[in-house]
Write a structure and sequence with these properties.
- The complex is a heterodimer.
- By secondary structure, chain A is mainly α.
- Chain A has 6 helices and no strands.
- In chain A, α2 crosses α3 and α5 (139-155) packs across α6.
- The radius of gyration of chain A is 27 Å and the shape is extended.
- Chain B folds into 2 domains: 1-177, Immunoglobulins (Immunoglobulin-like), CATH 2.60.40; 209-389, 3-Layer(aba) Sandwich (Rossmann fold), CATH 3.40.50.
- Chain B contains 11 helices and 17 strands.
- Chain B has helices at residues 8-24, 183-204, 215-230, 246-265, 276-292, 311-325, 339-349, 364-370, 378-388, 391-424, 428-436, and strands at residues 30-34, 41-42, 51-55, 74-78, 87-91, 102-109, 119-125, 131-134, 148-155, 161-163, 167-168, 234-237, 269-273, 304-306, 329-333, 353-358, 373-376.
- In chain B, strands 2, 6, 7, 9, 10 and 11 form a 6-stranded antiparallel beta sheet that branches.
- Classes of the chains: A mainly alpha, B alpha/beta.
- The interface between A and B is large, with 66 and 86 residues.
């Protein structure tokens, strides 16, 4: 029962969704819309489990005085502090709700800059990854390096100084060899997705069920 | 040409009003009248029972503006392959288009009466074709099975409208039970499903099938062994997408296989999750893997945990684990976005052996650059079959390969036909193009 019911739900739901794709009728759309509406409801309940998991993990660390247990406070305090300021004490410290509250202040002046900082690290990592990728250690790596130089110079105004051939060659590399490789990968991905979906719908792949899959 | 000359005096009077009021001062006497003539002039916002003003009798008027030519009849067709919420509406434009800037198309339900029932559903520029698909605006939806009436107005630069006749739609909208534009998709899909099932059956009958080795999958055992020897944990990142993403499901499947091996080797596993639903599934899968390995006591409930649903907060958390716990092996399998390089580069700096796999084409170069092994696109989906060695799983991979062979044959055929067209000036490629082209479906 523990295995059959989820498998039946997946099979019926999956086949229904395949059929729905070919039926444009309004009844078909109603079924599809209902499915889409249910998904966030399941997600909302799962979020409670997720927050519970995070709390349990870090409270264990603090209780056991595990290595780096102090950092767990840095998780738990904002985890409960932000909802507290957003839901229970939305007004500002000076009173009133006409000015931004503590939650807004923390969000705009702590969370957003920290996230922007993390994102900005990407620029430096791209530079270091490019340095590693473009080392001409072999003939193929040299071809990669040359292609990268042509494409990069072709994308910026300075490239045109060397002649029109540079941006044109860069564009040719992007449009033909690069696009051909991308399409080949995407074709494989498309078939792979379809095969995986069929395996799940027809119960060939059951690992996702965890304990119930066996 | 359709003109209603009866309305011209009214138009002339209205157009002359401003000049009359300037010439004669504010003490002029104006008499309101209702104009119920079939061709009326109105401002842009058509209001019910609108009254127009005309000067008192006996005043001198200048030569009147004859107004705009009005559009002709409206033709309505049911739009095929929709949910019954769209109609194809076309109208005869005015024969004399001079002065016409746009056409305003109004619609109301046939049984309804009164000016306020008309809704402006579309403004078509006079230079554009006199046709549009009605029902795109969610504010004025088309209800299936409801009969509508339309009328079109010519609009000049001042926004004055000159209405054509009211036309009742010849048809009502209705939804279809099969999308005819998707017939080729259906045929190709059925062919693919048949091929998959054929290879399922073949695999189950015990036919040996060859799968080419994939370095990234073969390195999994080696990577787990390395972590065991070093006494360090293994980090498994299942991507930052939801469970509805096929890449995430493939990742969870691989997690089950990897976790079983980790349980056998008695190594510590860390699985931080971005999505709460993925977390609950991953937890179950890992728990089961430890059970299957005969080591349920070794399962640590804190090994699989939810972290956050904020992309860069998740990255910060995972990077923190990499730098503090120094895992010997990092797996990045699933769907990744901008965080892929930040994760993989940090892992590389921490000295871990890294195995990545994703179907996100844009993130693949980053993983290839920074990871020791990368599963490219479909290899991620095939990994489960490689690790499990189950006949049906292998059959599915072979079915995929058969489908790719069909596509490759068609591409080769197109190449040959293209060259033939070029050399012999034939038009054979068009035949193939018509055969495989699928129109863009909304």
């Amino acid at each position: 029962m523990k295995r059959t019911v989820p498998l039946m739900i997946v099979m019926v739901g999956g086949i229904l969704m395949i059929i729905q794709y070919f039926i444009p009728h309004q009844y078909s759309l109603i079924v599809f819309d209902n499915y889409l509406e249910w998904a966030p409801i399941v997600g909302a309940f799962a979020l409670i489990l997720g927050v519970g998991s995070l709390t349990r993990l870090h409270s264990h660390k603090i209780r056991r005085r595990a290595k780096n247990w102090q950092y767990s406070w840095a998780v738990l305090i904002p985890l409960f502090g932000m909802p507290f300021f957003a839901l229970i004490m939305p007004e500002s410290l000076g009173g009133g709700t006409d000015v931004h509250g503590v939650h807004d202040f923390l969000f705009m002046h702590v969370q957003v800059p920290i996230q922007a900082t993390m994102f900005s690290l990407l620029a430096f990592y791209i530079a270091s990854a490019a340095f590693r990728a473009f080392r001409a250690k072999s003939a193929l790596a040299t071809v990669l390096l040359l292609a990268a130089v042509v494409v990069m110079l072709g994308q910026v105004p300075i490239g045109a100084i060397f002649g029109r051939w540079l941006p044109e060659t860069g564009l040719w590399i992007l449009r033909y060899p690069n696009l051909a490789a991308k399409r080949a990968i995407m074709l494989g991905v498309g078939f792979g997705m379809l095969a995986t979906n069929l395996k799940i719908i027809f119960g060939v792949e059951r690992n996702w069920l965890g304990g119930a899959g066996k | 040409m359709r003109k209603n000359w009866i309305g011209i005096p009214a138009i002339m009077i209205l157009l002359l009003l401003p000049s009359l009021s300037v010439a004669q001062g504010d003490d002029e006497i104006l008499t309101p009248v209702d104009d119920n003539l079939s061709a009326t002039v109105a401002d842009n916002s058509v209001t019910p029972d609108e009254t127009e003003l005309r000067p008192a009798a006996g005043e001198q008027l200048e030569e009147p503006d004859p107004g705009l030519d009005i559009p002709g009849i409206v033709t309505v067709q049911n739009k095929p392959n929709d949910a019954g919420d769209q109609l194809i509406v076309s109208f005869e434009p005015a024969v004399n288009s001079e002065g016409i800037v746009t056409y305003n198309i109004y619609r109301h339900i046939a049984e309804e009466e009164g000016e306020d029932t008309w809704n402006l559903v579309k403004i078509v520029l006079a230079i554009n074709p006199p046709e549009f698909i009605d029902g795109y605006d969610p504010e004025y939806p088309i209800e299936p099975g409801v009969l509508y009436e339309y009328r079109v107005a010519s609009v000049n630069a001042d926004g004055d409208e000159f209405f054509g006749p009211v036309c009742t739609a010849e048809v009502v909208s209705k939804g279809e039970w099969f999308h005819t534009d998707k017939t080729r998709v259906l045929i190709a899909g059925l062919l693919f499903i048949l091929l998959i099932f054929y290879y399922f059956g073949k695999a189950q009958r015990g036919t040996k099938m060859y799968l080419r080795p994939i370095a990234g999958i073969e390195a999994i055992d080696e990577a787990i062994g390395r972590a065991t020897e070093m006494g360090k944990p293994i980090l498994y990142v299942p991507g930052i997408s939801t469970i509805s993403d096929v890449a995430t499901i493939a990742s969870i499947t691989i997690l089950g296989r990897v976790a079983k091996k980790i349980a056998e080797y008695q190594t510590r596993l860390i699985v931080p999750n971005y999505d709460p639903i993925v977390y609950t599934v991953a937890e179950e899968v890992v728990k089961q893997a430890y059970l299957e390995a005969g080591r349920p006591d070794s399962y640590d409930p804190d090994s699989v945990f939810f972290m956050t649903q904020s992309q860069f907060a998740y990255v910060a958390g995972v990077n923190g684990i990499m730098m503090r716990d120094k895992p010997a092996t990092n797996f990045y399998l699933g769907m990744f976005y901008a965080e892929s390089l930040i994760l993989a580069e940090t892992g590389s700096l921490s000295g871990a052996i890294q195995i990545a796999g994703t179907d996100a084409v844009t993130q693949l170069p980053f993983f290839i650059t920074t990871c020791d092994y990368t599963l490219i696109g479909e290899e991620l989906y095939a990994a489960s079959a490689y690790l499990g060695h189950e006949p049906k799983q292998i059959g599915a991979v072979k079915g995929q390969d058969a489908c790719k062979a069909i596509i490759m044959s068609l591409i080769t055929l197109a190449l040959v036909l293209g060259i033939l067209d070029l050399v012999a000036n034939t038009h054979t490629l068009n035949w193939l193009r018509d055969l495989v082209t699928v129109s863009i479906v909304e």
